[in-house]
Amino acid sequence: MPVSRTEALKLSTAAFDVGAEVLRGQLQRSGPDAGWTLGEVNLNEWLQRFQDRELVVIVAPIGSESTEKRYCLTCGAEYVGNQCPHCRDIRQRLRERS
What we know:
Blueprint (H helix, E strand, L loop, with lengths): L4 H13 L9 E3 L6 E3 L2 E2 H6 L20 E3 L6 E3 L4 H13 L1
Antiparallel strand pairs: 1-2, 2-3, 4-5
């Protein structure tokens, strides 16, 4: 499921701040037998550096907001987009209290 550009950039900033490596770009493959590239970075070569190490890989596809109506599994509200605005506002208020 695509995430908003803002949320994806927050996630990448948080990862970078704790010392993780972060890549950003358009994922492409030049042919059926070719390797993957992200922006100008050859992912095969980039991942080779981490061979035999345990990794956590987070992929956050950045997409446009969904236009189909959804129902929040938490509060039952109907909404359009990537997340329930009612629950998002409540989460934000709770974070501000801490």
